[in-house]
Structure formats: structure tokens, C-alpha cells
Fold each of these.
Amino acid sequence: MSTLPKVAWIGLGIMGSPMSENLIKAGYQVTGYTLEQDKLDRLAAAGGTAAGSIAEAVRDADVVITMVPASPQVEAIAYGPDGILENAPSGALLIDMSSITPQTSVDLAKAAKDKGIRVLDAPVSGGEAGAVEAVLSIMVGGEQADFDAARPILDALGKTIVLCGPHGSGQTVKAANQLIVAVNIQACAEAVVFLEKSGVDLKAALDVLNGGLAGSTVLTRKKDNFLGRDFKPGFRIDLHHKDMGIVTDAARNVGAALPVGAVVAQLVASLRAQGDGGLDHSALLRAVERLSGAQL
């Protein structure tokens, strides 16, 4: 029998499925729950165990990991008679890897403490490719001892893993990450349209740009999306819209001005309003193309 902690995984979407599978590959016993049967079937095929409810998934877990879209979903799975806090054993460690508001994380940690459950907020960056390759950046908020206990699990999921401060700190850093990523994608999208309208070989231009100071992980990851107009979602516009709301609200609360970020937040919102919310966030290129006169 494995001496590794038993893991319950709640949320098996674009990110959650490959991440849970990486834990299985690392030798962990993973029991999962999500709303989609095909995702449960995928987990079972990878060697995990599919549960019929949150309560069933977490009942015997040493560690519970959640990866769901936003604060309302975290609250829905955490609270209530069928939720994590009422059904996970006292002493369990809850690692929430969703991207939510810092205050939601703080409130969850407080409520969990009353149940004897420890909590870390541990959102990630790296998208679907980073999840599949287990090279995510993981920014963590919580207690040092809990971070140390979670470290072997996090090491199986990511490459850059940092405790950023108390509860909510991981979410604050993730909000800053999403600000940088959105602005970076927007700049890349504008450059693509500029280059194409100027008649330059786009592939050659992006290759040389990515080898200099303009290079970035964003450009490396999204270059093929731009070249092929392939906007299959790795990280959906809908989710980045949610994240830009988090960072602009949090910045307002602390008195930080985000002049460029506010503009990009509006561009993300406009793209979503035009029906592109289900596309990858590299589809910001479509917004620039529309503004430049393209008929899409």
C-alpha cells in the first residue's frame, strides 16, 4: 500500500484533468468528482477513482484539491451539508487551486479552521500546456507548515512553487499574473495586426521578436495560435474576463492605478460580449482585427 496521502480532486476541467492525472502518475491515490461524466470516465481510465458526490470524494481524503472556475463555484463546493467542510475529515488539508478573489480565500480559510481543516490558496499559471507538462507556476497563500506539507504534491504539478504570504496572498499574486498576461497578449495581438498589414512575413517576424527583449512566455505559448488563428480554448476569454474583474476590483480597494489594465479589461469584456467568450484568450487578436477593419 502507498504511504502517500490520499487525494480528493474536485473539478476536472481543462486544467484539473491533466493535473489530477499527473498526481496519479506520481503514485498518488486520487478520487475525483466533477459534473461531467466524460471527465470522470477519463479520470478512471487514467487510474483514478470516480466518486458520485463531493461528500463521497472527500470522506477519507488526507488532501482535498479544488480546481473550479470562480468564487461562486468554490463556495458552492466548500459550504453546505454536501460540501467539503462538512464531509472532509478533521485535519485534512484543502488546497484550492482555483483563481478566485483574495477575500474568498481568506473567508474559506477562516471557516475551514473552525472545522479543523487547513487551507492553502494555490492558484496556478501556465495554461493547459503547463498543466499537461507539469510545469505550472504555483503561487501559494497560507501557513508555512501547511505549505511544507503540500510541497511534494505541488512538486508533481508545477515547476515554480512559491509561498507568497498569508491566506489570500496566492490569489493576489495570481491577479497580478493575469493582468500581465492579458496586457502581454493584447500587445502581441496588436503587433500581429500591424505586421500583417505592413506585408511582413509574420512567422519570421514573431520568431525574431521572440528571440529579443520583446520575447515572452506568452509569445512562445501563443505564437501558433496567432499564426493559425487557432483559438481552441486553453484558457477561455470568459475566465480571463472574470480574472480582470478580480484584479481591477482588488486594485481599487488598495488604491493602485491600472490605466493600461483597465483598457485591456474592457477589450476582454467587449470580445466576450461579441460571442467569443468560449475562445482562448489569444483571441484578443480578433478584437484588434475588428478595430482594424476586418470582417470576421
Amino acid sequence: MKRYLILEDGTAFSGHGFGAPITATGELGIQTSNFGYQEAISDPANFGKILAFTTPMIGGSGINAIDYESIDPSVRGIIANDIAFHISANPTFQDLNDFLKEKRIPAIYGVDTRALVQKLKNKRVIKASIMDTDDAHAFDQIKALVLPKNKTAQISTTHPYAAPNIGKTVAVIDLGLKHSLLRSLSLRKINSVVLPYNASIYDIINLRADAIVISNGPSRVEEVAPFLKPVFDKFYGKLPILGIGLGFLAISNYLDLELLDLIPAYNGSNFPVIEQTNNRIWQTAMNIGQLVVPDSLSLNLSRKYFDLRSELLAGYSINEDKVLATAFNPEGSPGNFDAASIYDQFLNMME
């Protein structure tokens, strides 16, 4: 079935429909990983996006129970150059097409994704729709579309829950939490309790938490900062705090560091970061739209991590305040484990 991806600038891309045969609208996002499409599709930080994959083909390895980053994916649609319709007969793997139908996610393949990358080259956000037509009415609809605000409020858990273990207790504030973050903490015997994005300081006090983790998520930092300010006011410098992705931006905003928009935003697993103290380079995964301007720093940072593409600050630690913040996802997923030692640094802060 022929379907269309239409953009707010009047451009239309035709392709073959698969997945759910429904209409969808959202923000166009580019995913640059060469692998890990299941993790990207189910990453809550991709909430509301029509996600275009730059790798030539997706779907070959199917969908499995281990690689979910959330049970119910919240992307609005998938765009691919080509897909694999046939996977091995292993009953533990599900076909991508069937998975997308089950989750009511529309998709198109046969699209020139390189041209989509060029469309986003000089824009931070562009609206997109998956439709059955590319007539004038369709373009009128997308022009009238208003993208949702404060996506974190829609994707965060509404009730606290535990990921139990036998070690220290960490309050994890869910701004768009990935399963792999909890898995990385659990592997280090951390007893995690996940709290909503608008958790109060009393929720953390009542847990007798040893530390706080602020997860990644899909919103702009201005939308979550008012909810996190009381937490920082109460616990900054008293409890170890780790911020990842949107959590990194929230800590940086609280410290009044200057944030610069990335155009286009980073979304993939191929972003090299260098640690200034030892010149070690990590290949990292990011899903973020801003980084820190180094010249805005007036703090005594213990470690600095620079993004080699933009030369902006992608992470830092302040040992005297027990703060660790990274724009990249230390657990990868998708991506490798180069930066996994960030969790070990955080564990040392708790000792």
C-alpha cells in the first residue's frame, strides 16, 4: 500500500506502508544508529516522534523480550529505507511488521532517508505526518498541528514502584526512564525506587534514599525545571545526584550553565566523547537537543567530557558536591558500553 510522509515545509515522500495502517503526526526525528532499532523505537525519550532510521535496512533481527526500553513504545511512526520482512523461525523473536501492527505504530519504507537528514540539517524541529494522501488538505492539517508540550508529564510513571536489590537505595526520578538504566543500577546491587517527574522532596525523604538519579526524557528542560528545583534546593550537595540526558540538562540549568541547541539534535549511538583528564575517547549514545557551552563554566569541575563533533561539554562531575551529569546514556542501548563506568563513578560517590 502506497503511503506518504509529508512535512510542514510542503515536502512529501512516498513509500510503501507497513505496520499499523493509521494516520499519525509528530516531530520528525533522525536515528543514526546502525543497530538497536528496537531500543530506539521503545526509548521513552523518543515520545511523540516520527523516527527515521538512516541505516539502510532494519528489521532483520526481529523483536525480542530483552531489548525493550519501555513496554509500550510511544513513537508516532517509523520511516526506513528498507526493511526485512522475514526473520528466523525462532519463536522468541517477533517480526517487526507484526510488532508495529500490534503497537498501532504506522511505518513507511522505500523512503530516501538521506534526503530527510538534509531536511533537518538546519532545523531544530520539523512537523511530520504519515498519511494516505499528499493533497492540499493533508498539508493544511500538518500546518495546523500543534506539537505537545511537556511530554515528560505524559510519559513519566504516575505511581512510584521499586526495582529491588540488596544495596543502597536510590530514588530514580522518571523523566522518560529506560529499562537499561534500571538494569545498570541493578547490576551494581542498587535498590532503585522509581518516582514520578513531579515527586516531592518528602517522597525522597521518606525513602531514606542514599542518592538520586534523574533520567533522560523527551521534554525541553524549561518544562521540567520547575518540578526539579525543589529537589535540587533540598538535596544538592547533600546527596549524590546523577543526571542523564534531560537530567543532565536539568542539573546544568540549575547551575545556570549556558545551553546551546544542537541542530540537528543528537539521536544515535555514534557520538564520540573525550574525557579531558586522560584523553580517553568513548563512543556514546545520545538522545538530546542541547549541550553546555564551555565558556559559561565558573565551576570547579572534577572531570569534563567533551563532544568531539561540536566541542561542547557533554558531561562533567563535581566531586565536592557529589554531582555527576552526562548528556550521553552510559548504558548505551542502543550503543556499546564504553561509558558504563559512569555508574561506577556514581557508586563511588555513594560510598
Amino acid sequence: MTDPRTTVVVITHNRCGELLRTLGHLAELPERPPVIVTDNGSTDGTARAVARHHPRVRLLRPGRNLGAVGRNLAVREVRTPYVAFCDDDSWWSPGSLSGAADLLDRHPALGSVTARIVVEPDGTDDPIVRELRDSPVPGPSWLPGPALGSFLAAATVLRTDAFRTAGGFHPKLWLGGEEELLAADLAADGWWLTYADHLTIHHQASTARDPTLRRRHGIRNTLWFTWLRRPVGPALRRTLDLARTVPRDTTSLHAFAEAAAALPWVLRERRVLPHEVESRLRLLEPAQRASTARRYTG
């Protein structure tokens, strides 16, 4: 059941054991996808371990931690029509890559397919799954699943050319809700994003993570996206809503300070979305306010 349509891209930083587990699962997939790993400056022997245990994996070593831009670096090397992302603590289920490729083959205006996320070792749905299933975004009748306003990089297959044309992940955003800006730009380019409940990716959250830093970047990146792409009225409303609802602590204060310090850059790069894309984002605002899964990450 080899399937030459999709390449899997993984970014990693100092999670050698978890990465090897993920690569082991990917090596067992019946699709036998090419795999590209960007080692974001690991110092724990990751590169040596990958070369030893998974010599068929293409390993990129930029020499520093590029965050989500490590995915951009890998996509430059992709030669397949579709690219699937996963993190070093997640892996695709057998058949899901082929299933996503089938949907993309079947629907030429479909830009990305996001899979159901199963939390391991419990085997339960991630809380975000309900929000994906119940997305309020209206879509065309041909769309094979709920229309989405954004996607989760570690659970999504995209058209390689659409990703490249949209510019990939913005280098300023690093990690933490970095998908929101790219998703909006894909929609502005005319692509639809969907959720597919019959496709699965497994996620066993790494113990080597800094949730405080991720939350700070998530709040900052949400503010940057808001002022880079939203009209003034909705941008003000979203900013005030965040200010009212984020935890009142130093992490939130630093996030707002970082966002404000970049105002000259934001104003230079500001490009308001087309009306039809903006209208979809407005429909998402009530869900964003109520979300316990993504409240501070886009």
C-alpha cells in the first residue's frame, strides 16, 4: 500500500527519545511516506540517533532553533504534491495519509485536511476535536467535512504548492498559534480548509515543554495576526476581548508588551483580508471566547 503522494515533515528540539518513537511509528505506516526531520538545534544527540536508527529519514540541521520555520525549510525539499506535518510527540495512523491525499485529489479547491487528534496513552479525543466537528464556518456543498477557519499544524495535510505560495509559517511568530496567519492567507488565496473525522493522528504530549512560553507566544501571535489581517473594528474588539480574558499575570503582560513593541513592523506588513474571509473569522469569535482548548493560542 505504498503511497507516493505525501511527505511527512517533523520539527524537533531536544526530544530525542520522543522523536525516535514517532519515527518508529511513521516507519511502520503502510504508505511508506518519505520523512524529513528538521532538527532545530538539538544538543541531546538527536541527529546522531536519527542517522543511526532511521538512515532513510532526511535530516536537516540548520544549527539553531527556527521554531515553525523549520517546517518551511523542510518543505523546500518536498517533491510530493502533499505535505503532512506532525510533531516529535505525534504520529499518523495507518491509512490516514492516503485518506487525506484522496480528499485532496478529489477536491481541487481543498487546501488542507485536518485529522482527528487522539490523546495517548488514554486513546481519548483531544478537547479541540469537538470544536473542529462543530465548526461554525459555512462551506460549499462539495466540501467533504466541516469548513475550518484555521488548522493545527501537527494534525494536517496540505497541498505543497499552496503552502509555498502562501509563504509558509511567518518567521516572526516562531511557535504558538502560528497556524492562524497561514490559514487566513490560504483562505485569501481561495483555498478551503476542512476537518476529516475518519482520519487520525495520535498525540502523546511531550514532558519536555514550556507551557508558559507557549502561552506567551500564543497571546502575542494572536494579537499580531489580528492587527496584520483584521479590519480595525474587529481587531480592536479581539484585542479588548483578549485583555479581559487572559490570566492577569506576568506571562500575559509580557505577551502584550512584545506585541506592542512590534507595532511598526505590523503596520508595515498589514494587509486586510478579503471580506468573504473576514466574515468567516467573525463567525468564529464566539467559539474562540468559549474555547477551553485554544483560548490563548489562536
Amino acid sequence: MKTKYFIPIIFLLLFTRCSTNSDTDLKNFPEGYTPEEVGTRISKRFISGKHMLHKKNGKDGIHYAEVCTWYGALKYAVAADDTALIKQLQNKFEPLFTTEADYQPRMIHVDLNMFGCLPLEFYQITKDKRYYDMGIPYADTQWQVPDTATTEEKDWVRKGFSWQTRLWIDDMFMITIIQSQAYKATGKREYIDRAAREMVMYLNELQHPNGLFYHAPDVPYYWGRGNGWMAAGMTELLRYLPKDNQDRPRILEGYRLMMKNLKDYQLPDGMWSQLVDDPACWAETSGTAMFTYAMITGVKQGWLDKKEYSPVARKAWMALIPYINEEGDVTEVCIGTNKKNDKQYYYDRRRIVGDYHGQAPILWCCFALIE
């Protein structure tokens, strides 16, 4: 009997071991490429960095790219159970209650309102109500039409959408991130349900049959980071959207269509281009990292087939890390880019180093890999 069953048992053990190795594409990385090493490097770089501010209507405030980086570092710290890093991130935030209170953005624009996602994430970790009181108005005012609203903005409200709607593709991260955080902090479905309705409208209006999005309806180019905002926005929303939400199937459909085509547009080295569908255009890190985050999360959440997509995500992650220099700054990040109906304009965009647009999505990948 022992002889009879020895070979099948050995075969089963070897098969199980091979299958396990195949299933750990997004778990085992060589030295220097682990999410723990990379996440710690980028987070420490952020702790020592200066604020990135922008000016809207004469008011300085924390730039959304810094908020995205701060949020990513905090999510990474929690996933890594790094209490010391959480405390450092809290200490960096504390002056926003006092000496840096003027850096709290005004609640007047989609790029500014997303700031609220950060104090709401802190609230969920610390249960300190100061964070809640700071963050929740940013979610509420995204749907509360101001007296100064234009006719177009009021029309969006009448249709049930945010008055901050613009049909710019980056909106679908800026809106979903704050509304999702408000839902998580309060448990009130209205926040995430309205964000889902908004996402469906953007998908219906802007997504093309190839799964991608023009930078704007009148600018027929598939800019990398712009598409990255859509990928990350759908991902963020699907992470928390209740299964019984009526819009979830449509959002999942749009997400999967995008991921399917991104798989085909990936460059041989694992990166994606500044113009996603143009392999002759230069490889850009911020968009690549956003796509990678979306794909890692999709594999782990079961939205994407693991066998098909985990090698794609792993290849992208491995390609990104060499773009991080010795100081912990991500290179080859496209500078902030307004729309322009000129293909050469996207080719010629300046590439910058250490910009928070590039630092943030690397951190998102880190926490997604270790969650």
C-alpha cells in the first residue's frame, strides 16, 4: 500500500508547491523591490519633504498631489503596521489644525475638496474627532451648491450630480476618494452611492471602446496620467462600494474593459507610455504606477483573473523601481498637464523628479501589495 500511493502523493506535493509559487507573483520580490523597502523609502522621503501648495482663487492650500502622497504613506503605514511612521505622519499633519490652518484648501473646487480624504483616513485610524470635523465638510460641500454657482454647475445639481462636475477624467479620482472616505467614516450610503452614479455618468460619456479615455472630449489623445486617474478612481470606488449597489456592475464593466486593453498596451519592459496607445512615446512613471495599483488591487480583490493579470502587474512593478533614485525620488514624472489638441505637446512635456504626482501612486502600489 505504501508503494502504491507514494508516487501520487509526491506528485501532489510537487504540484501544490508549483501552484503556490505561481500564485505568489505579487508576494515574492527580490531585495530592493519589496513593497516594504520601497514603501519605507518613499514615506521617509515624504516626511522630510516640504509642502506642495497650489493657488486657487487667491488662496494657498495643500496641493492634491501632496494629499495623494500623504494618503498613500498613511495607508502603507497601516498595512505595514508601522506605528512609528503613523505617528510621524500625524506630527506632520498637526500644524494644519493650528499654525498651518491657512493651508486647508477652500471647498470650492473638485481638486481642493479631495483634501478631506486625508483627515478622514486619520480619523478612522485615531478616532480623534478633530479629523472628522475637518474632513467631512469637504465631502458634504461637493454636493451642496453654493450661491455663486454658475448656470452650468446648477444644471449638474438638477441632474443629481456634483456641482463640481467638469467631465475631466481626473475628477473621477478626486470625487470618489473623498466620497468613499466619507462613507467609510460615517457608514452613510449616500456618500458612496452618489459617487457611483457620478462614475457611471463619466464612463458613459468618456470611455472609448478600447477602454481608454481622451484627455478631454476635444483632445483626442490618451494621456497616461489622465487615464491613471480613471483607473485609480474606479479602483478606489470598487474597493468600498457595497455589493448591492445598482451601479456596481457598470463600474466593474468599465474597469475590466480598461484593464484588458491596458494589458495589451503595456510596453515590453513593463511600463506604459506617456500616450498610452503610442509605444514610440516615452515611458512615464506616474501613469504606469496608477495602472499598476489598479491591476494589483483587481487581482487581489478577485475582479481580475490572477493567472492572466498578476504577471502583468508584477512586470510593471519590477519596471518601476529602477526609476526611483538614491534620494527616494521617482524620476520620469510628467509635469502637471492641461489639455491641448496637439500630439507633440504631450511628447514635449517636461519630465520632473520627486514630484508628488509620481511619489503617490508608488505608495499606493506598496500598500496594495502588502494589504
